Amino acid sequence: MKQARAHAFNAHRNLTENDEVLMTSIFRDEITELDKDIEVHETTIRELMNEADQWLFEETVRADEALISEYQSNSLQVFCPICQKNLLKQEASVISCTCGVRFLFESGLERFHEILQIKVTYHETFCERILQFFTEPKPDPGFFSLSGICNDCEYMTTIVL
Ligand SMILES: [Zn+2]
Ligand SMILES: [Zn+2]
């Protein structure tokens, strides 16, 4: 009886041990599977995060570019050299002012402004008077040439032919 019980106990224990081994191995497999799942999930999450990061990065770049171009177009305020009151407008290769002057200028408002600045600065190096600008109608109806002149030092320059 005692032996039988011990045998049963042992058998039970063996079974339990076997079970444990089996369970452990099942668990281990499951855990490995889980780990794999987690890895897959993590990879997916990482990929999604990367995609989100990339998207966010691209969005940021786009937003920055929009801001920069907005800033540039806002910052590029060029006063009309003729009326000196209104801001010049550029549409394609036409630079115009509401006072009525229109210049055909291919290189854009920025370059137009640069050239004006260069001429004014250059004149300032040898003369204290302010360079005056004047227009002359061109054969193209509605368009004007633009020149700068100083009656004091007789400096004369053409900005738009
Ligand atoms: Zn004007
Ligand atoms: Zn001068």
Automatic annotation (TrEMBL):
Signal sequence segment: none
One Gene Ontology cellular component: nucleus
InterPro entries membership: RIP, RPA_interact_C_dom
Entry protein name: RPA-interacting protein C-terminal domain-containing protein
Domain of life, per lineage: Eukaryota
Gene Ontology BP annotations: protein import into nucleus
Residue ranges of every copy of the RPA-interacting protein C-terminal domain listed in the record: 79-157
